From TrEMBL:
It comes from the Bacteria. InterPro entries: GH3, GH3_C, GH3_M. Residues 390-496 form the GH3 C-terminal domain. Pfam families: GH3, GH3_C, GH3_M. It comes from Salinimicrobium oceani. This is GH3 auxin-responsive promoter family protein. Residues 297-362 form the GH3 middle domain.
Length: 510
């Protein structure tokens, strides 16, 4: 069997050796041209005159000038909703066979995002690119014959009229090619279980029968799955169950906040590979081990634009203002936060996905996700992004010797009607005084962000910390959305949502 692993590893190395990197700008121009050509006869394409844009000397400039920004609410109200009324050829030829349900991190009701056959194929092709990039990692040959645990949402999709609906991880898993199914765990039968707790219990029961070499999934839910397996088998760490586990692929969420928690669950470190698979497409993946940054996929059905993430361009609800400028790929600067815009083979056009990113390596086109536009805390000019919050929380972990895999924060008024930042920290183990945590958090943020320091000297009058168990965050997700899959915890809440959260924390959740 080791021979098979050596053959597969050899094929991956050979594929990587003959694959040449496309010119980034030319690749993006080609993608946009292809998108416009295919969609020019749709209702959207006719409305925004794609045929005329294609005649322009500078297609990218003409496209940006003619087509406005769309967030989900705007494109759904004006265009995607027509698909549910039976219309064809709305924003992409034909009708999509799937709709990805996504409540994201900001709402209780699900978004319904079209997923076309072209997008299913694009996701598959990017997956193959990621597999080929494993040639850059020093992995033993027998790794390539091990099984892969993919902890996503249920693959038992809901049939609605002429299409199926489910989370993107469930849609992707339901389209796994036949040759991969022998490697894929937990397998078709368990993956179809809708109830997350029941599905994870079945995974725990079967865990010792599998030889898992790699896992993929959102960190918070993967951590809970591992804990359930350890509890069921009375094991100290996951390597007692899966001794050949080497790789963990996360998606769309920074792994650093969960790093200390994961260290307690393993016997030896895992190779962590970040990916950026959202309901709207597979946009980037970590292609080399020397960095946590992810390489944008520039030649596979997604066209990217970038809006500087500055307060004057962002509305309070996270939407981009109409006067916001866009930056082309060749114009981006390193370590600058941008709001990501995408146009895709699923018929999303200049779509505000809601994520902010920065380029860590402009030449390699490598990015890191820095937060969400709605997670930008700027009620009193503090201008805090999630990456700054994550860094400050990591400092607390080091300073106090504690583990904080989850947190949420809001700007609220105290009894004197003055604004403060109130934090809830999900502390897994270790002890620290709440006032000491608040003071240390305050100092870390002042040192990291001059705008925060200015706000603290003026309108922002204090910082308060409340300690809770990490399980409160998963219970909140379960009560408001659902468990598992692509569900991510809100890092920043508005006052109304925060009041609901505090009521939930105070309630008897049993």
């Amino acid at each position: 069997m080791a021979v098979i692993g050596s053959i597969i590893k050899g094929i991956i190395h050979a594929t990587d050796a003959v694959t040449t990197e496309p010119n980034a700008v030319e690749a993006q121009e080609k993608v946009l041209q292809g998108l416009l050509e295919k969609a020019k006869d749709t209702a959207f394409g006719r409305h925004y005159e794609f045929a005329e844009i294609l005649k322009a000397d500078d297609i990218r400039k003409a496209y940006a000038e003619r087509v406005p920004f769309f967030d989900y609410n705007k494109i759904n109200e004006e265009w995607w909703s027509k698909m549910h009324q039976g219309e064809d050829n709305v924003t992409w030829p034909g009708n999509p066979p799937y709709f990805a349900l996504s409540s994201g991190t900001t709402g209780k009701s699900s978004k319904r995002i079209p997923v076309t056959d072209d997008m299913v194929e694009a996701i598959r092709q990017t997956g193959l690119k990621q597999v080929a990039s494993l040639a850059n990692y020093d992995l033993p040959s027998d790794f390539f014959q091990k099984e892969i645990m993919m902890l996503g949402s249920s693959t038992d999709l809901n049939k609605v009229e002429d299409h199926e609906e489910g989370e993107i991880s469930g849609i992707s898993a339901s389209n796994i090619p036949f040759w991969f199914r022998n490697f894929y765990k937990p397998g078709v039968e368990i993956s179809q279980i809708e109830d997350w707790d029941e599905r994870v219990l079945e995974i725990a029961k079967e865990a010792k029968n599998w030889d898992i070499g790699a896992m993929s999934g959102i960190p918070s839910w993967t951590e809970l799955m591992i804990k359930k397996i350890l509890e069921y088998h009375n094991a100290k760490n996951i390597h007692e169950i899966w001794p050949n586990l080497l790789v963990y692929t996360t998606g769309g969420v920074a792994f650093e906040p969960y790093e200390k928690a994961f260290e307690k669950l393993v016997a030896h470190p895992l190779v962590v590979i970040d990916t950026y698979l959202a309901s709207e497409g597979f946009m980037a993946f970590q292609a080399r081990p020397e960095t946590h940054a992810m390489k944008l996929v520039l030649d596979n059905g997604i066209y990217f634009e970038f809006v500087p993430f500055k307060p004057e361009y962002i509305a309070e609800d996270g939407a981009i203002r109409n006067n916001a400028p866009t930056v082309k790929l060749e114009e981006v600067e390193p370590e600058v936060d941008y709001v990501l815009l995408i146009s895709t083979v699923s018929g999303a056009w200049r779509y505000v996905i809601g994520d902010t990113i920065k380029f860590t390596d402009v030449d390699r086109k490598e990015i890191r996700i820095t937060g969400r536009t709605k997670f930008f805390l700027n009620v009193v000019g503090s201008q805090l992004s999630v990456n700054k919050m994550n860094d400050a929380v990591k400092e607390l972990e080091q300073q106090f010797g504690i583990t904080i895999p989850e947190f949420t924060v809001a700007a609220v008024k105290n009894d004197q009607e003055e604004y403060i930042h109130k934090w809830y920290l999900g502390i897994e183990e270790g002890d620290a005084d709440e006032k000491e945590l608040a003071a240390a958090l305050d100092e870390a943020l002042k040192a990291a962000n001059k705008n925060y320091g200015v706000a603290r000297s003026k309108a922002l009058k204090g910082v308060e910390v409340v300690k809770v168990g990490p399980e409160v965050f998963t219970e909140w997700s379960a009560a408001n959305k659902k468990k598992g899959g692509q569900v991510k915890m809100e890092k920043v809440m508005n006052e109304e949502k925060f009041a609901e959260w505090e009521k939930f924390v105070r309630s008897d959740r049993s």
